[in-house]
Amino acid sequence: MSSINDIFDIGQQGIQAQQAAMQITSHNIANVNTDGYSRQEVVFEETTPLDGNPGQVGTGVSATAILRKYDSFIEGQITDSRERYGNLGIQMSALSKIENLFYDSQGTSINNLIDAFFSVLQDLSANPSGKPERVAVLSRADALATAINNVYSDLIQLQKDMNNQVSQTVADINRITAQIADLNEKISQAENIGQNANDYRDMRGRLLNELAEKIDIQSFEDGTGQITVIGAGSVLLVERGNSWELGVESNPDNNGYYNIVSNTSGSSSIDVTDRISDGRLKGLLTIRDSVTPDAIDNLDRLAAAVANEINQVHRAGYGLDGSTGTNFFTPGFETDDDVSAVELSTNSGTGDVSITIDDPSQLTYRDYELTFVGSNYVLTNKSTNTSQSGIYSDPTTFTFEGLSVNITGTHSSGDKYTVSAHKEAAQNMQVAIAISDSDKIAAATASTSNRGDNRNALAIAQLQDKLAIDGTSNFSNYYGSVAGEIGANSQFVNNTYTAQKFSLEQLKNMRESVSGVSLDEEMANLIKYQRSFEAAARLITIGDELLQTILNMVG
Amino acid sequence: MRVSDKVLYNTVTSNLQQNLEKMLELQESGSSGKRINRPSDDPIGAMKVIDYMTAISKADQYQRNIDNGISSLDATESAIATTQDILVRAKELSISALNGTSSASDRGIVAKEVQQLYEQVLQIANTQSNGGYIFAGYNIGTPAYNSSGTYTGTAYPGGSIAVEIDSGSTVEINMTGDRVFGSSAYGVDILGTLNNLKTALEDNNLQGINTATSNLESAMEQLNNTRAEVGARINRVETAKSYLSKLKFDLTGYKSETEDVDIVKIITDLAMQQNILDVSRASAAKVLGQSLLDFLR
Question: Same domain for B158 and B290?
């Protein structure tokens, strides 16, 4: 049986339901500019009807749930896209710094200084005893060496910046994973007692996006609404209310730069540096461990080639003061000079490896690796893969590609040495002759009566055209190809970044299309709910009037 | 598609941003005058520009080398030419002295003039240019011939000073004294011949005057040959010079084509981009300014 009182109940429920809807609407309006906010919507349902005559009679409305509008597929795509975006963003800004170091459209880059240096050498060949020409040669050479030193130190600085950012990024990741674990708990607590944790979920989504920008992640939600986050392919970062921190450890085999380690398994930390495949962290590692070292290596090769080629010819000539055998640049690259042989920190052998220059004219300016395999030694040119090997017996001496190798003592199988004659040439390059000693510039081939003898100066000047690097490039060609290579890499990253940025924007728009707040829509809803509220209030007034009518009948 | 406020804002701002970026790029190209401001703008182009810059710098340098060379060769040539004139006079004198009408005292007077000619040739052989003795080979710090007329410079075939006039191609810009004026070891010793002539005149030694006269003829032959060789070298460097100035002109053109902007295109593009920007701003003002609120009451 229906009664007038039901009208009061229905009216009251209507008022409450519309009021709840208006509250959600106002929450939506207030969050129109909140990043990662998902618009919410109240779900109305009719309450259980009562049996009656002529049939079941409705008993009103109730607001049963607050829905969060979102599309998990798009959210997943945004996460993936952010990983690439973070990775490429870092690479792009670092590469643009590097390419600016190697190229200057106004003509003051290393290449121009090489040209200017050879130009004054030509002037010297035209007037070999001229003091101004001699001083000009030294000051141009100094300008060249200084420019190479500067680019080198700028590259090292960039590498160090990247390394610092690695540890900052790891700290950020740890902060975010802790927050995600915290939110996991809050969400499961709320949902456990039948509440919606919509806003917590938005916050967690936002953090997940932030995390994806820093490292490649995968995440999935379990039955309790909590997410598990796995980073770098296989490293557990968050599970339910727990998070595991990543750490950094200095790597002695990489200039003391940081490795990234995981402590998930308990006491021993595992190096996961190589497993990181995307995100800002990958970008930082790529620049730090691949792009910058390549650029530095190229610069070292150039500096070593210039110094070695010029020194060889210079040593053969005579200065105005009769001096000979003088190096023009340091490092000198003379026979018997020491060559850097760096052993791996994990080597267990106690023996010694000493490498010196055997023949400067045969140096390749490449990295070599000396490894001990079983009872054999192998020295491999890492670029061309040419190698020399043999059975090791203490001591062993041999020569290979201009290097003289002397191995003594005990070496264990698996021990490795990195050998390179050109390493740090760019850092150490200097003019070996003081301005006051300009008479020592060996312009002459004759040892005496040689004020007019320009043969050696000409021979040095003509090195500009010698295919001194790999037998295929002169200094200028080589420099051009290095700058071109960096430019091509930078262009590729730029283009990919732009495309990635565009697709991320598209995805964000798709997300906002589903989850974003439309003020027009909310305003229309507000009016709708306001009208319903007014009508529900009117129901109570009418119910009151009905009761009044009946009371009047009685009275 | 459902349009939320964020979609509107994002679309409008990202379009504006893109248009502004294009404006900035055009602005950068316009103000630097360069299409390539960093290698990534055009990696291949940047490599070419680096090659062109080196090639231009080398062409400049070769031109400087040639100018140096020409001045040295010119000095050599004019020294040879003056010596030729002197030898013509010396031969005239010796022939007149051989004439039967000449007396011993006449020959004594001629000897005095020949002595003058000897001094002149010695002075020419010790010509200095740019602080060095040009006929001394490598030993430019010391006169090529000492006071007794002995050659002290670098002996032929040594002593040639070469400069590069093109990649790998050199030209000798000097002539050692012994090739021009001879020495006791090489060619006709001109100073020795003049000295012999003088002595023969003083001694009234007709046989000696006769020998000296025929030696003077060989000496003139020697000077003709060296002068022709110097002339040929001057020709060669001048040809190289005009080739280099054309090469430099071409290279500068190629470099400019590779890295410089087409100003007309930039201006047109800028104007077009400005229009696009205006349109997107106007449409942003329209789209963002509208709200249902404006129409409610």
Answer: no
Write out chain A residues lying below 8 Å of B16, CB-based: none
Domain membership of residue B212 (yes or no) is yes
Q: Is residue B16 part of a domain?
A: no
Whole-number pLDDT of residue A267: 65
Instruction: For residue A505, list chain B residues with Cβ-Cβ distance below 8 A.
Output: 10, 14
Sheet holding A217-221, edge to edge: A217-221, A227-231, A235-239, A242-243
Whether A454 sits inside 8 A of B162 (CB atoms) is yes
- pLDDT one-digit tens code per residue, B139-196: 998 999 998 889 999 988 889 999 999 988 999 999 999 999 999 889 999 999 999 9
Residue B146 maps to a domain: yes
Domain count, chain B: 2
- Decide if B187 is inside a domain: yes
pLDDT digits (tens, 9 = 90+) for B225-271: 999 999 999 999 999 999 999 999 999 999 999 989 888 888 999 99
- For residues A118 and A223, give the distance between their C-alpha atoms in angstroms, rounded to a whole number: 74
Using DSSP's 3-state secondary structure scheme, residue B236 falls into: helix
B residues 162-181 closer than 8 Å to A (CB): 162-164, 167-168, 170, 173-174
Q: What is the ipTM of this complex?
A: 0.86
Give the nearest chain A residue to B67 (CA atoms): A126
Residue B72 sits in the same domain as residue B158:
yes
Residues B140 and B208 in one domain: yes
Q: How many other C-beta atoms can be found within 10 angstroms of the C-beta atom of residue A126? A: 26
- The CATH number for B221's domain is 1.20.1330.10
Q: In chain B, what's the furthest Cα-to-Cα distance?
A: 140
Q: How far apart are CA A229 and CA A246, in angstroms?
A: 13
Nearest CA in chain B to A443: B138
Q: Which residues of B touch A506 (CB under 8 A)?
A: none
The DSSP annotation for B147-205 comes to: TT--B-SPPTTS---EEEEETTEEEE----HHHHT--SSSS--HHHHHHHHHHHHHTT-
Name the residue facing B39 among A484, A515, A519 (closest C-beta).
A484
Q: What is the pLDDT of residues B146-161, one digit of tens each?
A: 988 899 999 888 899 9
Report how far residue A260's alpha carbon sits from residue A271's, in angstroms, rounded to the nearest whole number: 6
For an interface test with B, the pick among A37, A449, A505 (most B C-beta atoms closer than 10 Å) comes out as: A449
Parent domain of B280: 263-297
Contact status, residue A59 vs residue A9, Cβ threshold 8 Å: yes
